[in-house]
Amino acid sequence: MTKNVRVRFAPSPTGPLHIGGVRTALFNYLFAKKYNGTFVLRIEDTDQTRYVEGAEKYIIDALNWCDMAYDEGPGKNETFGPYRQSERKHLYKQYADELIASGNAYYAFDTAETLDFHRKDHETKGKTFIYNWHNRLKLSNSLSLSEEEVKAKLDAGEDYVIRFKSPQDETLHLTDIIRGDIKIDTNILDDKVLFKSDGMPTYHLANIVDDHLMEITHVIRGEEWLPSLALHYQLYKAFGWDAPEFAHLPLILKPTGKGKLSKRDGDKLGFPVFPLEWTDPKTKDVSRGYKEDGYFPEAMVNFLAFLGWNPGTEQEIFSMDALIEAFDLSRVNKSGARFDPDKTKWFNHHYMQEQNNDDLAELFKPIVDEKVNEIDINYIALVIGLIKERATFVSDLWGLSHFFFQAPNSYDEKASKKAFKEGTKELMQELVSIINGIEDFSVENLQTKIKGWITDNEIGFGKVMMPLRLALVGALQGPDVFDIMFMIGEKESIKRIETAIASL
Fold it and tell me: Aminoacyl-tRNA synthetase class I anticodon-binding domain: from which residue to which, for each copy (predicted)?
């Protein structure tokens, strides 16, 4: 890659950032970093009616949480700023006027009522109304009206839009990095609106102008923009500008594989579709976030990378640095990527094991403090080291470790019948005397003394170890019994065994 790579992520601040948007940001970020390029954030807020307070901050917070901080954008290295389209609106009219002057665009004065009439008229005839070469000379625009009529309408302040003039009887040959060569018949294209009656550009004009002025070299965006590729190519040609290279990412599909994963699917299907929790400023409805659900950012980045891309090997675990090194747009799939909630948990379980026990203890301590009196953070870290291999989320840790912090207040009924039988009480009483005689209460000594006593007396291991575990834990689960005894200490171990004898 010889040219200085510049890519942009350009979300609209209309609500929380969907994971499909995060995936688009990630692929842009990986591509930029692989080629020592620049990752630009641009806020596309031309549609002020859909603007949502707090959405821009949410987008930036989400990128930062995923460790994808932008190099250039709002408030940061504003070389090509401003980076909010609403602050750039003074730029766009001149480019729209330039297209009119060159004959590539025209004024259209059609009212909403007129256009609605034509749509319904076509529907009754089993046709689809398309505003283009086929009918534009029959409609109210600067192609069908005289110069005097157009001037009079403009001078009178009549509402108008500016439309792109799509060519007739041409075949466009387009190239997409992921999808290869694409041929488009221009006769099927409509004359898209570039500039609206409210004085704001549409996405089509604004993003082309901004990408050109910001020297964007590669446009990596979602598949939903593929139908706009023909117009965007034509706009670059009309302006006489070099077009960037395009890459359209596959859709993220629902877990069933049918249909695009939407913002509403998370609540319906029981998993987050947003990186961070979001509270709607109007309704106060709260949408779940991956962060608040206990996912690690590394896990989210890793599973998102595999939604539509693969490294060509069996390797699945990639750090951000490893992803940057391996990432290649040529290995992005054309077909949609099915979202698998279970696979996201698999990734999180892996990264749970990678976490430092002291860091996990800081996250787990507030949960422990809610249940029991102040517990030393170092003790919590030691407990985590014994049980985290069974955990996927920090929220799992209490269920796996509560017996390290408090004695059981009940015993699993099925386990009790299995573990406490005739003669168990006497064995447990004898075990207490064995434990009392152990001077150095270490895991190794406990193991040696108790196993030695069982072997020497030819007692079945299950006859001792099952009731012992039940007494300590309240169920037949948990890590090694001798680790539990060592952690809770001699007095607490004996107390729990004696309580179980009395209860069971």
Answer: 360-501
| CATH code (residue 482) | 1.10.10.350
Cα 334 from Cα 331, distance rounded (Å): 9
* Helix/strand/coil (H/E/C) assignment for every residue in 68-133: CCCCEECCECCCCCCCEHHHCHHHHHHHHHHHHHCCCEEEECCCHHHHHHHHHHHHHCCCCCCCCC
Place of tokens 């070469």: 133
Report yes or no: 35 and 57 within 8 Å, Cβ to Cβ. Answer: no
What is d(CA 210, CA 62) in angstroms, rounded to the nearest whole number? 23
Q: Same domain for 182 and 107?
A: yes
421 catalytically annotated: no
What is the rounded average pLDDT for all residues in the chain?
95
What digits encode the pLDDT tens for the residues 325-346? 999 999 999 999 999 999 999 9
My answer on whether 326 and 420 are in the same domain is: no
Count how many domains the chain has.
4
Does a structural domain hold residue 227? no
348 is a domain residue: yes
What are the φ/ψ torsions at residue 43 (nearest 5 degrees)?
-95, 115
Does 282 belong to an annotated binding site? no
**DSSP per-residue string spanning 410-469:** S--HHHHHHH--TTHHHHHHHHHHHHHT-SS--HHHHHHHHHHHHHHTT--HHHHHHHHH
pTM given for the model: 0.91
Strands 161-164 and 6-9: unpaired
34, 254, 263, 449: which one is catalytic?
263
User: Is residue 104 in a domain?
Assistant: yes
Q: Could you tell me if residue 367 is inside a domain?
A: yes
The whole domain housing 288 covers 1-73+250-354
Residue 2 has pLDDT above 60, yes or no: no
**Partners of 279 in the beta sheet?**
286
* Residue after which a domain boundary falls, among 386, 404, 422: 404
